[in-house]
Design goal:
Blueprint (H helix, E strand, L loop, with lengths): L2 H6 L4 H19 L2 E4 L14 E5 L26 H8 L3 E6 L33 H9 L5 E6 L5 H7 L2 E4 L19 E6 L2 H11 L29 E5 L8 H16 L3 E5 L7 H16 L18 H12 L2 H14 L5 H24 L2 E5 L8 H5 L3 H6 L5 H6 L3 E9 L2 E8 L5 H13 L2
Parallel strand pairs: 2-3, 2-4, 7-8, 7-9
Antiparallel strand pairs: 1-3, 4-6, 5-6, 5-10, 9-11, 10-11
Helix pairs in contact: 4-5, 8-10, 8-11
Bound molecules: glutamine.
Glutamine (GLN) binds next to loops.
Length: 454
């Protein structure tokens, strides 16, 4: 049963959820996809009619541990819901649990999670991707109706969607409220959606998007129905293929992505190669901006007001260091050091301000491209989901380099959709569709056409 069938059919929710939770627990035992499971059976109301909805651990759900994958927040049960969760509940969604992620979103493979590493349900020796690894893994593992809410700062929806073979949508920055999201880097964070099909993510975007007074960065937009006109196809659409996004990628992945592009052409899209020369500066500016913002966000976890605390001993600096050393993971510590360095007096102009200037140039470069094209298409990730053994051998820099294709669109705050377009060694390959600000409707149409044309 898919989401559309679930919504259409006459269904006994109690029977459905009996089976659903059995399957969920089975999948979780095997692949460790959720930090917490929440058991309820919802009601047949609203647009979601009791549909199972999972939330990435960094999205606050009232009364349910929301720890952003970090031990420092273990046991934190928010007394409120994030706006997206409020909207899901209002439409009859049933929250089934919190999915595994890299601590605070710091990672590309979900191996930096404080609550165990999720395994890819298509091959458990491989990663689900990150940082929303649990969300993608769960969407792939359950052959039952379910939609996942996830979050991306620099590619954390697209990457795991690609590695697990599901659809993943990262909306325009500001289209979906961040109220109740545990921040990674505020100027980059977006809440988005994963589903087994493009229709599912379009439906959920229609529910969670739109102005929210409680988030000052939320755009003044009314919610719209993104499922309307989804089947219109790509005939006559102009699609740009940025050549920089094909450099240094795995040849098997490249082949599958080209097959996807040919499919779009056969459906009537006009594809043309273009150049986005600033792409090469995106990775370094992203890691400077993201770590700078992360290091300030994490300062509040000092063992006093937020997060874990310990019996007070020593002076403040000693106490604070002891709590942070004990509860932050290694990658969080690395990012605090990197980010603090980049913001330091004397280095700020050289790193942080320069990175911000590069970011503006990247936004302008995309804007120019979208003057000529309806969408851009590229591989989502340079490879298929790596094995855990391979990840262990990668240095931190090597791991950061895996984000080379996803960071530029995230710096620009433009919408992105990853859809499966083929496979290599039995593992899925994702095709990345990028759109201009607020052109979610267009990229969803491209994704749907590709999905149907298979
Ligand atoms: N892998 C990227 C990082 O570690 C992106 C993470 C994200 O989007 N949350 O910063």
């Amino acid at each position: 049963m898919n989401v559309q069938e679930f919504l259409r059919g006459d269904l006994n929710l109690k029977d459905f959820y009996n089976k659903f939770y059995q399957e969920l627990e089975k999948a979780n035992k095997k692949y460790n996809l959720l930090v917490k499971i929440s058991k309820g059976s919802g009601s047949r109301k609203g647009k979601l009619k009791g549909l199972p909805v999972s939330a990435k651990d960094c999205i606050c759900v009232r009364g349910l541990q929301s720890a952003a994958g970090s031990r420092i927040l273990e046991g934190y049960k928010p007394p409120f819901n994030a706006t997206v969760m409020e909207r899901v509940l209002k439409e009859g969604g049933n929250i089934i649990g919190k999915t595994q992620q890299d601590e605070f979103g710091f990672g590309t493979f979900s191996v930096n999670s404080g609550f165990g590493v999720p395994k890819n349900p298509l091959n458990s020796a491989r990663s689900c991707g990150g940082s929303s690894g649990g969300a993608a893994g769960l969407t792939a593992a359950l052959d039952l109706p379910h939609i996942a809410l996830a979050e991306s700062t620099g590619g954390s929806i697209s990457c795991p969607a690609s590695f697990c073979g599901v659809a993943g949508l990262t909306p325009t920055y500001g289209l979906v409220s961040r109220y109740g999201l545990i921040d990674y880097a505020n100027s980059l964070d977006k809440i988005g959606v994963m589903g087994r099909g493009v229709w599912d993510v379009a439906l959920m975007l229609s529910i969670i998007s739109g102005k929210d007074e409680r988030d000052s960065t939320s755009l003044d937009r009314k919610a719209q129905d993104y499922t309307r006109g989804l089947d219109r196809g790509v005939k006559g659409m102009k699609i740009g293929i940025p050549k920089e996004y094909f450099r240094g990628i795995d040849s098997g992945v490249e082949k599958e992505v080209w097959k996807g592009i040919k499919r779009l052409e056969s459906l009537g899209a006009k594809c043309q190669k273009i150049s986005l020369p600033l792409t090469k500066y995106a990775l370094s500016s992203y890691y400077i901006i993201a770590t700078a913002e992360a290091s300030t966000n994490l300062a509040k976890f000092s063992g006093m007001r937020y997060g874990a605390s310990e019996p007070i001993k020593g002076n403040f600096n000693e106490y604070f260091s002891r709590v942070r050393s004990k509860y932050f993971g290694q990658e969080a510590k690395r990012r605090i050091l990197l980010g603090t360095y980049a913001r330091m007096a004397g280095y700020r102009d050289q790193y942080y301000l320069k990175a911000m200037k590069v970011r503006t140039l990247i936004i302008q470069e995309f804007r120019k491209a979208f003057g000529r094209f309806d969408a851009l298409v590229a591989p989502t990730m340079p490879c298929i989901a790596p094995k855990f053994k391979e990840i262990e051998r990668m240095s931190p820099i090597k791991q950061y380099m895996m984000d080379v294709l996803t960071v530029a669109p995230n710096l620009a705050g433009i919408p992105q959709l990853s859809v499966p377009c083929g496979s290599v060694k039995g593992m899925p390959v994702g095709l990345h569709i990028l759109g201009d600000h607020l052109q979610e409707g267009k990229i969803l149409k491209v994704g749907k056409a590709l999905e149907e044309g298979k």
